[in-house]
Each structure stands twice: as C-alpha cells, then as structure tokens.
Amino acid sequence: MGRYCETTVTVRRPWSAARQARHSSSNDILTQGGPISSETRINERIRVPEVRLVGPNGEQVGIVRIEDALRLAQEADLDLVEVAPQARPPVCKLMDYGKFKYESAQKARESRRNQQLTVIKEQKLRPKIDAHDYETKKGHVSRFLEQGHKVKVTIMFRGREQSRPELGFRLLQRLAEDVAELGFIESNPKQDGRNMIMVLAPHKSKAKAKAGKGQAER
Length: 218
Known about the structure:
Translation Initiation Factor IF3; 2 domains; 4-stranded mixed β-sheet; 6 helices; initiation factor; ribosome binding; Translation_initiation_fac_3_C
C-alpha cells in the first residue's frame, strides 16, 4: 500500500490596506511610556516562533505562537506590535498602531507647548538705577508677565554696594508693587553671592490667556 500524507493549510484573512502599508514600513517608532526601539517590528515583520501577547486593553493573553498572534490581530483588525523585543519571548501588543502614533505626536506637541509656558526671562538691574532706566526695565518685566512668562529679576552689586543689600531689597519690592496687576512674587528676594534675586510669576489668568492664544494661532 502506498503511504498517505495529509497536509493542513491555514488560510489567513488578508490585512486591511492601511495595515498592509504599515507593516511594510521598516523604521516605525513605538513608545510605551518612552521610546522602545528605533526599529520597532510590527505584524509579519515579527519573526520569532512565539510571543508573550498583551491584548488591546492591557490584558495578559499569555505565550502564544506567532501565527496565532497574527491571526488574532487580523481578526480584530489591529496591529501586532513588538513592545519589548529584549524579553524572552518578546512581548507584543494588539493595538491600532496608526492611532497610537497620532496620539503620541499630539502628546509630544502638548509637552513642547507646556515647556514654552514655563520659560523664565531675566532682567538685571543696578541698586542705584536712575529713574529712566528703571521705567525701561519695568516695561520689559511687564511685557514678559503679560506674555505669560516668569521673570527672574537680578540686582547686581558692585564694590561698596555689597555692604548695602537693603538698597536691592527695596528696589525689588518697589518693582513687585509696580507690576502687581500683572504678576506676583513667586520667590522672595534672596542674596546669591554678589547678586540679589527675586522671581516674579504671571497671574494664572495671564498664563491661561497666553496658552489659549497659542492654541488659537495653531
């Protein structure tokens, strides 16, 4: 009698067009609380026998064959993304990779915008500044506060001026009172070597107005 050989063929549902385009890319970047790899593998570019699979809602599926993980991704119309390639076996997660990248870009832009809101400007004065120069410096401080920035005001002492710190203290207090409608003292005057430093911060309404204006412009 001749030998009989049975062959099993697995038929896989094709990827959607969008996911086919994504899994063909070779330099996608995935973050999961931070950068994971500059060459993150997704879908059929993951070439290992088995993976530790995490579901779309963070549930632990367990260790499964790569074929089964790809099948589950296709059935859910999601991507299989390698999030921890150094693990044994590698950890992969089911997710909408396109949506993930979009949300990551949005968070990065928001982070940059928040960093811009906390910019600290600096203004330097001498303890015996004349009236005209004082008004000029005060104008700069007012403009910075109106723009939603914090302002570091530095009084620079030279020579014998160092023996009269009260001059700098009174000048800083005067400046704070003159711009009280725009900002408040966040850090009280303190001596720092030959200098005396005070930090002014804009009122919250000013900072919010600047943030709203920035969003409107974009």
